[in-house]
Amino acid sequence: xxxxxxxxxxxxxxxxxxxxxxLGLMIGSFLNVVIHRVxxxxxxxxxxxxxxxxxxxxxxxxxxxxxxxxxxCPSCGxxxxxxxxxxxxxxxxxxxxxxxxxxxxSARYPLVELFTxxxxxxxxxxxxxxxxxxxxxxxxxxxxxxxxxxxxxTLLPDSLTLPLLWAGLVASALGWTIPLHxxxxxxxxxxxxxxxVYWLFKLTTGxxxxxxxxxxxxxALGAWLGLKMILPVVLAASIIGAIVGIGxxxxxxxxEGRYVPFGPFLAGAGLVVMLAGQARVLRWLGWA
Length: 288
What we know:
The chain is an all-alpha fold and 288 residues long. Helix content is 68%, strand content 0%.
């Protein structure tokens, strides 16, 4: 009995909002690497695949993975030491500048770390000290990475969207999240809804209004959040995206012919729905 009590208290401690916040800070530091390097890894693979398909010689771009090469200052090439890579604290200690060349470091790095830490803490508070909280932390971390990549490059990599989709379906099938029928139909309706909008817009205007990655991301959100949350997620993402796009247009931050990617707003809406919960979202909409 005593050992069971100790084990239970240990689990509660390790899955407490405070501990999860610390974990989120460290994961957020890694997400900065993911956001920066995954598009570079994709570009390298595209170049090599295209050269092989066309049968033309090409000099292989430098190998890059999530672990190699070592992180360096893009301005002077200074190798980042371990004590310069402590989430948030190192940025404050360095006063937001490279220790070697004093070039300014983007504030987005600590902001991603802080945001991920806050998300993990909120998940711990909402779901409690249960193993499923770690699943939702993984869900949230993947959405942060996808939002950052899409904002920078207008790409939503299959290497992230598809595992997120399958993880949601498997977690549901194992009884860890939502009922399987809701997850399955959430994925189906999520994909087909944006797929239908894409083709309707293309047939009407001759232009592509969104990418296929958006379909897969909404399918993944449906697998995690359920069928009933598809419409609230799309509505919230559309409204926020429109407001941000109009603001950027009037602020001169949106060049002619460019568009605001939809993925970050889908991801943000998914996080809001996750933290609010299905019952509360439905009450907000007057559907409950």
